[in-house]
Amino acid sequence: MNLSANKPTRMGIIDYTNVWPITYYFNEKQLSRPIEIITKVPAVLNRAMIAGELDLSPVSSFAYGFGSRQLKLLPGLSVSSEGPVNSILVFSKEPLDSVKNGKMALTNTSATSVNLLKIIMNKYYGGNPEYWDSEPDLDAMMAASDAALLIGDHAIKASWRDHGFHVTDLGKVWKEWTGFGMTFAVWAVQQSFAGSQADWLREITEALHESRKQSEQNLEPLVTEACKQIGGTDAYWNHYFQNLCHDFTEERQRGLQLYFDYCYELGLLEQPVQLSFWNETTRIQVK
């Protein structure tokens, strides 16, 4: 998709609070060219990027793996955790090890966490559950299942309820098992767009990094907005945002590479994946 004078760049934004530290202070109106912002859940953005309908967007890490032949990664940007992430949660009627061969409902809003659960159930727990896809409704999911996976704000809201289910944080399990943090989402750009619009892409990327930097310096507006939109307390959201990582260090890259290697080993991806970054970034200060 090429930029033209009368056709703005199309950029996706994940409709979850976990990406706010990268996007909250991002103001497309301050850039030199027009951008159309499309705000959707990860699954919708994933499909749009694979179909070439967006120029750049945060996507589920698994979606980048699936479309890696046409996509490049933007450096220094991700949604990651070093242990518990608090928004990638499995709710189960018994401890997860006890339902490892049971029936599990999978949220239809993303891809990374769905396949992370499949990896963990197979290689860590040694199980072989029956999976089915569902809208992110905990009551409906658990009515027909032994366990249910929810992500993002759906998982957060469900975790506040007094439902009596066991709750397993997949970020915590991955860290304890592999020693790596888990990267749930990355920022990707169409190779064709990156090749033809390098200076413009650099401007956008610098603005995203500046937004991340401002969020690190002042989380208060994000916390206030999260309480207003989602509920909860200032203390909860301060901990939540501070616990997330939005850089993309070499260590996080190694953890994501291991995830892709397991996806290929288990047949979740048809070909091996190697991380490939947009390389016109030497003047961007990534901190």
From TrEMBL:
Name of the gene: mqnA
One Pfam short name: VitK2_biosynth
Q: Keywords for this entry?
A: Lyase, Menaquinone biosynthesis
State the protein's purpose.
Answer: Catalyzes the dehydration of chorismate into 3-[(1-carboxyvinyl)oxy]benzoate, a step in the biosynthesis of menaquinone (MK, vitamin K2).
Q: Which GO terms describe its biological process?
A: menaquinone biosynthetic process
| EC number of this enzyme | 4.2.1.151
Catalytic activity reported: chorismate = 3-[(1-carboxyvinyl)-oxy]benzoate + H2O
Please state the pathway this protein functions in, per its UniProt record: Quinol/quinone metabolism; menaquinone biosynthesis
Q: Which InterPro entries match?
A: Menaquinone_biosynth, MqnA
Family the UniProt entry places it in: Belongs to the MqnA/MqnD family. MqnA subfamily.
Which Gene Ontology MF annotations are present?
Answer: hydro-lyase activity
| UniProt lineage | Bacteria, Bacillati, Bacillota, Bacilli, Bacillales
Q: Please tell me the species this chain comes from.
A: Paenibacillus yonginensis
Q: What name is this protein filed under?
A: Chorismate dehydratase
